[in-house]
Amino acid sequence: MMTPPTPTPSSLRDLLARERVEEDDGAAAAAAPAHTTPCRASRSPRRARAPSRSRSCRHASPPPPPPRPLVSGKGKKKKEMDDSAAAEDDGAVGAVVAVLSAYAGRFLKDAEFRSALRDKCAACLAPAAVDGDDDAAAAAAGRAVLANLELGIESIERLADDGAAAPRDAKIRSLRNSIRLLSVVASLHSPLPSSTTTAAATTCGIPNSHLAACAQLYLAVVYRMERNDRVAARHMLQAFADAPGLARRDLLPDLWDRVFLPHLLHVKVWFAGEVELVAGWDDADGRCRRMKTLQRLYNDRMDSGTAQFAVYYKEWLKAGGVEPPVPSVPLPSVPGNLDVEGKHSASVRRSSINRNLYNAVFGTAFELEDVKDAKVDEETELVLDLDVVELNDNSVSLKTEKLAHSKMGLQEKNSRSRKEGAIPETAPTQRKSYSFRLFSCQGDISKNVINHPKMAKKEVVSVEKEMDNNELTMTLERAISVVSNSDSLRQCEDAVHEVARACSTLQGDPSLVNSLSCASFIQGLLEVTFTSKDDAVLESAILIMGKLVLGNEVIRQLVLNADPQLEVFLRLLRSNELFLKAAIVLYMMKPKAKQMLSLDWIPLVLHILECGDEVQSLSSVKCAPKVAAFYFLDQLLMGFDVDRNIENAKQMIALGGLDLLISRLDAGDARESRHCIALLTTCIQADGSCRHYLADNLQKEPIVQLLVGNQKKASAAALNLMSELVCLNRTTKIVEFLKELKNSGCLNTMHILLVYLQQAPIVQHPLAAVLLLQLDLLGDPLQYSVYREEAIDAMIAALEHSSQSRKVQEQCARALLILAGRFSASGEPIAEAWLLKRAGLDDSLSESFRRTEAFKDKSVRAEEEKAVEERLKKLALMLLNSGGEKFLMALSNCISDGTPSLSRSCLITVTWMSSSLSPLRGCNDFQPLACSILAPKLLDSLSYDRVLEERVLASLSLLNVVRHPECMEKVFPLKKETIHSKILQMCLGLQRSSSLLAADDIETQIISDQEQHIISM
């Protein structure tokens, strides 16, 4: 039995695969001791304390995802649950990989980002001076390590600057050397606990952990260059695990904010609260010492938490791995008497376990715990004063059970009571800032400003009817003042109810909006909305905001400025009861993508789209929440830069957004279908592999219906989606899709396309003509077809007028590549690579073409090649018979006068047509026309100043043309010096041994024809 061949040194993919296996083995060895040591059982997360209008409520870390239920009973049900959980994990893993690899991908596209990253690494890795002769050898070895790191970084930067222009072999060698150099540096800091290398070890005065982090960062870039996103993400996470402090503060602060900060917000809130408390100390020396202690504790806990979650995500990204236990990051323990003075901050101590960063929130209750069931954390020593307020018909009685309190707590309580007892009833004052105020966590001892006597519903209705406008206005002004100024959550909640009741009673009163439009009231309303846990209060707040923003652009901007990151609305969208109404109010304000930066937006918006069919009534507005969902998705997938748009689209695909859009497309109206089609096209452009799933599962009739009518945007979107879906990597799949498109329901797709072609602007003609031509190709090409004639005429007209519009040139180039019918698995055109391979030029093949060919079964490949050849021959005959000289003339003019992309596409078209209609295949009608029309432009393409690929394509076309006996004299006059001159020009133009095959064939053909001509004479 023969042994498999050893991989060649230039096989970068084999090298990457071996290093990935070695990395997985090393990580498994590092994790092995952890499984043998019993871990401390983590306590279930505590519920939040009773609601208070507090800053801590805003910044507290969100709770963890609910544990997956254990299913007992039949094994089949348990298996279904396990499969569902596995699918959920796969989606979350894909989203994590998308975020991390997209960040590494910025290195390849942004020169400023590369320069900034290089400067950051240089600043962190400045070597220290070495004292003494004993350290000379160590210093020399250290300088060698730094040189390795610098060489690896420079090599990667050169590759990123060169891009696709770098030769393939040189790129492979450079990447391989970079991996080896950086791997040596990364190995200086071992994650194994038993390793002799410690975190304090240094090289030339630089901590080895810093060197390893920089090396891991550039290793992530290397694997991103090779499109191995999962391994790139793991190297990026390892940088945070090796040097968490350096990575979060200096190297990758923005990525840390997105991935790790949500898990550690409770530590940040704790630190802010303690700093605020210590800042009020009179003792300057004690304050300075405490601040240093707090800063040290904060940095240590942030660094350890970052490292824990980096390892957590890295373990989760292992191939075939399941989600590991989520780490717990408790708050730091403050030494001395600082705990006594900072007990009020203990209310923010919550479990650090964040919900799955990319888990869908469908059906998950978030921050809706019942206040009556709230518990105090067992680790805190804070003892509260519980105020129980009982409201009678005409009086307010107060029962206070004093459990225990500190001297400071009593003073704060009394000062708050005096302050709340003197609430002004005048108009609210303007705030100086939009920061959230610190609410009191204790009950209101003074008399409530707004009294709610108990009475029957009928009596309430009668009282409201009898109340005149003056009394209602006075009550409204008092409620506005409370919301604007009071620090009592209970008072503010009652006031919000009063304002909502006034909005319902005084509908149409212009003075109402004027009274509510002050910035202090809007800020206070947002604070109450963020803090309160009463659904009735939140619903009233939503009603008020809807009333305010309706038709008032100034108030819309006030609300958006007061909540720039839409944190208040994110909390409302997590509510199981109110998220639909909250979505409508937010849609009325039309926020932009720059305000929707949270990672939770995609799952929340998909939840709205899934449940948003029923029309919601809000004030005088009636709207379906799904309309808001489409607006939000449009912002999230098209409103950022290219990288962030792609990242969000991949996250939506990972969370099952394609199926949701497919169902909406099938059941929706024309407007909804247009939104779905535009979003699906964006998803295809972000991840081309999903087009196969859409081609199989998408109903074609709703897409074709959008071509009918005068809706230009909808028709253009439908045509663009169809042109994307036809770019499949198998001819059989393309034919199957075209048949489904042609026979979609009761519609005559070809007739609809013909009418659209006659009415659409010229920029849409190329794609429409190509689709119509491919549908006509399903029939008999020998029979006359008006669809074929119109499609070819439209294509010729577009090529002739392409010089007038760059957009038309781009569409023509794309249409010609679609016509060739050669695509990779991700939908990239590979017709040029296929032709170059036939010419023996393998070095210029794209990576997508190599992947497509490498895994194709031989029998399947032979069957596919046969189908492609038959299809191209039929198509070439159709173009020649119906287009004739006009079509070839249009191609010829675009080869010389078009943009580089259009010129290349026309040259590719001429090459495959000449190959399909070669005399070797029994076709002799194409060559005479090509001699007079195309040959001069093809000879010009052999010039040495043209790129190699164009010269090879031109030589192949000429070879197929001169095989015809009549074409030899027209192309090459039978003079010896002329023949040698042309051959020399072609050989000098090609300049590559692998490409001289075509030139040699032409020379042999010319000399053979010359000899036959001389003999006949």
Automatic annotation (TrEMBL):
Residues 92-333 form the Putative E3 ubiquitin-protein ligase LIN N-terminal domain. Residues 471-634 form the Putative E3 ubiquitin-protein ligase LIN ARM repeats domain. Residues 27-42 have a biased composition (Low complexity). Pfam families: ARM_LIN, ARM_LIN_2nd, ARM_LIN_C. The lineage of its organism: Eukaryota, Viridiplantae, Streptophyta, Embryophyta, Tracheophyta. Residues 1-88 are annotated as: Disordered. This is Uncharacterized protein. InterPro entries: ARM-like (IPR011989), ARM-type_fold (IPR016024), ARM_LIN (IPR055566), ARM_LIN_2nd (IPR056514), LIN_N (IPR056512). It comes from Urochloa decumbens. Residues 635-979 form the Putative E3 ubiquitin-protein ligase LIN ARM-like domain. Gene3D superfamilies: Leucine-rich Repeat Variant. Residues 43-58 have a biased composition (Basic residues).
